Each structure stands twice: as structure tokens, then as C-alpha cells.
Amino acid sequence: MGAITDPVRIEMSDLIFATANENKVKEVQLMMPSGFAIKGLRDIGCLEELPETTGTIEGNSRQKAMYVHEKYGVDCFSEDTGLEVAALDGEPGVDTAHYSGSRDPEANIRLLLMNLRNEGNRAAQFKTVFTLIIGKNVHQFTGIVTGKIAEIPTGNMGFGYDPVFIPDGYSTTFAEMKTEEKAPISHRGKAFAAMTAFLTQNFWK
Fold first, then answer.
1. Which of 36, 56, 131, 156 has its CA 20 to 30 Å from the CA of residue 66?
2. Cα dihedral angle (46, 92, 94, 171), rounded to 10 degrees?
3. Are strands 137-149 and 165-167 parallel, antiparallel or unpaired?
4. Is the per-residue pLDDT at 3 higher than 50?
5. Among candidates 110, 122, 139, which has minimal Cα distance to 198?
6. What is the largest CA-CA distance in the chain?
């Protein structure tokens, strides 16, 4: 995490989340302190797909934040998330969003379950890395939730791989949980909590 060269406490009524995924925006907004709001890429006129070419979750997260910061001249934060399955040597990992060759969640899940059809070990973890850029300072925050991959998809809430991910300590998938229940225990929730704690301590009044 980068060091703050000259911390200045500022008022920030909203934050730019460098994503076009409205599900992620809604999930993160639920965790925002009262009086603050999340804005997505469409709110600043960014309609293009952000680059994700570094080969790592940390690198992709930073790359997306830097792209928006430099092209649109705004302080912002981005995230990159990977599902890492033990029996598949960490796959899909950095390729999580397009594991099947497309960004179709159902196709991604089908391929994942097919690749695990003969595996007894279904342990997995979700990993999210948030990159926050304020001025010239870059900071990263990581959240991890461990669990296992279900035999069949269950639930119709959430998004992505939520129908097949069962977090440790629970008997239901993320897709069976209401967003309010999932958000604080999720990988994204943990990373976001670390970021907001940092902002509260160093920047927010």
C-alpha cells in the first residue's frame, strides 16, 4: 500500500467506482457510511471496457483504476476479483469473468462444474483487490472468503459464480442470500471495509 506523502482531510460525498457492473455498485453502496454514495463509470461518461491485461488480480485492479484516473481526471477506486479453486490449481483465477471464453455467467459455471465433476476436493476461495487512487497515491486492499463449490447451482440472487459458492460456516450459496446478508461477509465486503476504514482515518471528515 502506498504511503501518504501529505495527508489532507477532505470532504467526499461520493466515490467513483471504476466498474460498469451495476450489481457490484449496488453491493458496495450497501456498505457505504451514511451520507456517502457510489457512482459508476456511466456517471462520468466512461462507456468503454477497461483494460485487464496484467495477468494478476492485483495488477488488473491497479490497471483499471489508473486508466480511469488518468483518462478522466478523477480520484477513483476499482476492483478485480478471482475465484480460486484448489483442485484446479487456482483456476479460474484472473480469468474468472471469462472462464468459458465469454462473460456469460451460466457458461462459466457450467465449465467450472464440468472441470470438477470427478473431484472430491471442492475447496475454493474468492479474492478481491480494491485499488484506491487519491491524487498521486495508490493504495490496495484485499479481501478473501473461503468456502467450497456446490454440486449444482442454487439460488437466484447475487451474480457471477454466486449460485455455486458456499462460504465456510454456511450451508447456503451466496445466491441464496439477500444482498444485505452477503455483502458484509463477502470477499468484496471485506476489502471494501478495509478501504473505508482507511478513508475514514486519513481523508473523510
1. 36
2. 80
3. antiparallel
4. no
5. 139
6. 55
**Tell me, what's the pLDDT at 1?**
46
Parallel, antiparallel, or unpaired for β 92-93 and 76-85?
Answer: antiparallel
For residue 12, pLDDT over 70 is answered with no
Is residue 8 pLDDT above 60, yes or no?
Answer: no
The set of cell numbers assigned to 29 is 453502496
Count of C-beta atoms within a 10 Å radius of residue 114 = 10
80 is catalytic: yes
Domain boundaries, the chain: 14-202
Q: pTM higher than 0.85 for the full model? A: yes
The answer to whether 141 and 198 are in contact (CB under 8 A) is yes
Q: How many residues does this entry show for the chain?
A: 205
Contact in structure between 3 and 156 (CB atoms under 8 Å)? no
Q: pLDDT digit string (tens) for 91-120? A: 999 999 999 999 999 999 999 999 999 999
Q: Are 18 and 78 in contact (CB under 8 A)?
A: yes
Give the CATH number of domain 14-202; options: 3.30.420.40, 3.40.50.1000, 3.40.50.1860, 3.90.950.10.
Answer: 3.90.950.10
| Dist CA 162 CA 199 (whole Å) | 29
Neighbours of 165 (CB within 10 A): 27
